[in-house]
Amino acid sequence: MTQNQATQVLYEQLQLPIFQNRMYDSEAEAVNCPRGDIRLVEDLKTGLVYNAAFSSELMAYDAHYQNEQGVSGVFMQHLGAVAGIVERCLGREELVEVGCGKGFFLETLLARNFDVTGFDPTYEGDNPRVRKHYFEPGLGIRARGLVLRHVLEHIQNPYEFLDHLREANGGHGRIYIEVPCFDWICEHRAWFDVFYEHVNYFRVSDFARMFGSVIESGHLFGGQYLYVVVELGSIRPPTIDMADRVHFPVNFLRGLNELRTAADGCSAIWGGASKGVIFALLAARSGHAVGTVIDINPAKQTKYLAATGLLVQSPQQALAQLPAGAPIYVMNSNYLEEIKKMSNNAYTYIEVDHD
User: Do β-strands 327-330 and 312-313 pair in parallel, antiparallel, or remain unpaired?
Assistant: First the structure.
């Protein structure tokens, strides 16, 4: 790690795809995708971790961006757990989901009879409960609670953004925030979990320094996500706690350096989303390229992964060509049993997030 004035550099990686979940129609287009650099730093004033090489001007999401996880029964169980926290801490009435994306979680709440309105300018559906613009001051909406799931890690100035939401909601109300957990990434040396899209990397303690009133906090999805419920009106500029500095592992890339693949190239990745994109790219750079990518999401199948140009196949297509016993790199161990069942437990399963 190196120190540069008011920041300390934790990790650097060059030329990652700026959109790891954007799918491409051809191998050439995927290989030539837009790229950006990673320079993760710890801010020595705020204590927050972010990509100092990030440029928001590069980020323009479109219909080719596919990050839907709802096709998995395991992920649906996770969303059910989140709905329970929202009900317990925010109630069921007068809720707003900020950045609702394709609306999957909003539809989950509506199916459970929650009173919720979604805001997202990129929404492509036709549900009248979703407004296709930002949640901002001047709308005349005062929600009892806001839901912010996997949005804040994409926002370049998270404190300013949260303060903006406080203002938009009249200075009051609670907010449920869910983001990837940086402590989990460090503990598991999850080098495949650092993305250009994610400009911020949070710990639970970051929110305790950013809000004076934390109602509830914890971890979800096998520890990979963290959540907090806070009073919006208690927001304050974060200040670093020198007794709670980031402990970034010096051997963060150990798993990559020890990677093994079948000599004949008969190995596969199961999970053609963010983790799989970065895993495939860095594995190839280290001389351990994989040949097959499997994903159950139909929107990803027959498309190509950013940077490597690997074709994404359905389990049926891919497994018909993969020899029994071949290594399958499971990108997320939360799905291991689901994957074993779908593949008749006929392969060698390597959980990449078990360091």
Answer: unpaired
CA distance 347 to 344: 8
- List C-alpha distances in Å: 152 to 157, 162, 178, 190: 9, 9, 8, 20
Q: Provide the phi-psi class of 334: left if phi over 0, else alpha when psi is between -120 and 50, else beta.
A: alpha
Residue in this structure with the two tokens 């005349």, named with its chain if needed: 140
Are 237 and 206 spatial neighbours (Cβ–Cβ below 8 Å)?
no
Q: Which residue has the tokens 């539809």?
A: 107
Rg (CA), the chain: 20
pLDDT in tens, 312-322: 999 999 999 99
Question: For residues 36 and 14, what is the distance between their CA atoms, to the nearest angstrom?
Answer: 7
Query: Edge-to-edge strands of the sheet including 145-149?
Result: 130-131, 116-119, 95-98, 145-149, 174-180, 225-231, 214-220
Would you give the end-to-end CA distance of the chain in angstroms?
Answer: 21
pLDDT in tens, 141-153: 889 999 999 999 9
Q: For residue 204, give both structure tokens.
A: 């639970």
- In whole angstroms, what is the distance from residue 194 CA to residue 256 CA? 13
Query: Does an H or E element contain 177, and which?
Result: strand 174-180
What is the pTM (predicted TM-score) of this model? 0.92
What is the secondary structure of 1-57 as a DSSP string? -EEETTEEEEEEEEEEES-TTB-BSSHHHHHT--EEEEEEEEETTT--EEETT--GG
- SS3 string, 264-305, reads CCCCEEECCCHHHHHHHHHHHHCCCCCCEEECCCCCCCCCEC
Strand order, beta sheet including 2-4 = 2-4, 7-17, 35-43, 49-51, 200-201
